[in-house]
Design goal:
By secondary structure, the protein is an alpha/beta fold. The chain has two domains: 100 residues, Urease, subunit C, domain 1 (Roll), CATH 2.30.40.10; 304 residues, TIM Barrel, CATH 3.20.20. It is built from 14 helices and 17 strands. It has an eight-stranded parallel sheet. Helix 11 packs antiparallel against helix 12. The radius of gyration is 22 Å and the shape is globular. Bound molecules: fe (ii) ion. The site of fe (ii) ion has 6 residues, from loops.
Length: 433
């Protein structure tokens, strides 16, 4: 017997009021609300009342560090708030890591992410440890959760692919163990020349192995840091179009407009995906500025207008680089909207797409559709206490139900606040107008 679920009375992101029928793991029908979904045996139907909530594709985190997450304070806090002190603290912590410790912290973070409606994530893993303990921990976790969560792992040479003596061998070993994506950090190599050399070598590895690339690229306020150009060039050279992501690219915030204008068409030609990490970019960048102090996040509006696929990532939750966070991509979208001044209707909706369809596309999971989901898609869905994507961002709306492959994985009841004001009737506050 087939498992049938009807999610009734919901809005799609393109503002259609619909009912959605799910058969086993797949979306079977999307019909206008209450026009009579064709279900032969209502008795076997599980009904989910949408109550005019927003039914959305799940959130996809395009950029995270599961090996470092939830390690805040080990062995000390980041006093300067800079990327480089964070890297130093991580270097102090690394020798103390155990496979079990990484696994447990990463698993907890994945639970938080699912509760927040995230069902796919690309995590970078530092391959600098000769025993690859973190790699093994995350590969184990990926295997355990693969029936309900898409976890992609990037082999990330945190201390430099060419700069760390044994990084080349360790990166190849990590890929041999089954890590999905080739990482890099060209701006952290010893020189611009070495950065470019690392890009070439890493793209060659990806092409040879048939893998995707996701590099930390130009995560600095230095307007002269332009590895993004070299990455796009090598992407085309090795035929990796649509398979390469440049993460952060914060230098582009500070680069001259003439350089940006030349770069945009090159990124489109190379089909390079760009991932901004708003919570982290706004806190780590601009640290050497007095005032005015730069925001640091890359040129999200210009990139989007040029036709580049731009996604937002969370990057960090409670680790050496960021003390806050709760694995909530609506918080990420909220910050991205503000930092990028994406306040037009189209801009706000684009911020929602930057945590749903766009990262899915960057990760190679699916091609974005207007609704975010379509008949025949796997039934991966999130039901939000919001009428539309803008309200979802405004309220960081409650995720009432999270469904992966037709199975409800998480439920969070709606919370109502009761007001008891002097000389007035009792009120219930509803932030949805
Ligand atoms: Fe990162």
């Amino acid at each position: 017997m087939k498992n049938l679920t009807l999610i009734e009375d919901v809005w799609t992101i393109d503002r259609e009021h619909v009912d959605v029928l799910i058969e086993d793991q797949v979306i079977k029908e999307i019909v206008p609300h209450k026009t009579g979904t064709q279900v032969n045996k209502p008795s076997q139907l599980k009904l989910i009342q949408g109550q005019e909530g927003l039914l959305s594709a799940p959130f996809v985190d395009a950029h995270f560090h599961l090996d470092a997450t939830l390690s805040l304070g080990r062995p000390r806090l980041n006093e300067s708030g800079t990327l480089f002190e964070g890297i130093q603290i991580w270097a102090e912590q690394k020798p103390l890591l155990s496979e079990e410790d990484v696994y447990e912290r990463a698993k907890t973070l994945i639970h938080w992410a699912i509760a927040r409606g995230t069902l796919a994530m690309r995590t970078h893993v530092d391959i600098g440890d000769p025993q690859l303990k973190a790699v093994r921990a995350l590969l184990k976790l990926r295997e355990e959760i693969k029936s309900f969560f898409d976890l992609q792992i990037v082999a990330f040479p945190q201390d430099g692919y060419l700069r760390q003596a044994n990084a080349k061998a360790l990166l190849n070993e990590a890929l041999d163990l089954g890590v999905d994506v080739v990482g890099g950090i060209p701006h952290f190599e010893r020189s611009t020349r070495a950065g470019q050399e690392s890009i070439e070598q890493l793209c060659r590895i990806a092409a040879d192995r048939g893998l995707r690339v996701d590099m930390h690229c130009d995560e600095t306020d230095d307007p002269q840091s332009r590895h993004i150009e070299a990455l796009a060039e090598q992407t085309i050279r090795f035929g990796l179009q649509n398979r390469v992501t440049a993460s952060h690219v914060t230098s582009l915030h500070s680069a001259p407009n003439d350089f940006a204008a030349k770069l945009m068409p090159l990124l489109v030609e190379a089909q390079v995906h760009i991932v901004a990490n708003p919570l982290i970019n706004i806190t780590l960048q601009g640290r050497r500025d007095s005032y005015p102090r730069r925001r640091g996040m890359t040129r999200v509006d210009e990139l989007m207008a040029s036709g580049v696929n731009v996604a937002f990532g969370h990057d960090c939750v409670m680790d050496p680089w960021y003390a806050l966070g709760s694995a909530d991509l609506l918080e990420v979208a909220h910050m991205g909207l503000h930092v990028g001044q994406l306040t037009s209707l189209a801009g706000m909706e684009a911020c929602y797409q930057a945590v749903t369809q766009n990262p899915a596309f960057a990760l190679g999971l699916k091609t974005p559709s207007a609704k975010g989901f379509a008949v025949g898609d796997r039934a991966d869905l999130v039901l939000l206490d919001a009428a539309n994507p803008i309200e979802a961002i405004r309220l960081r709306a409650n995720r009432r139900m999270v469904m992966s492959r037709g199975q409800v994985l998480a439920e969070t009841p709606s919370v109502k606040t009761q007001l008891n004001l002097p000389n007035q009737e009792q009120l219930t506050v509803d932030f949805r107008l």
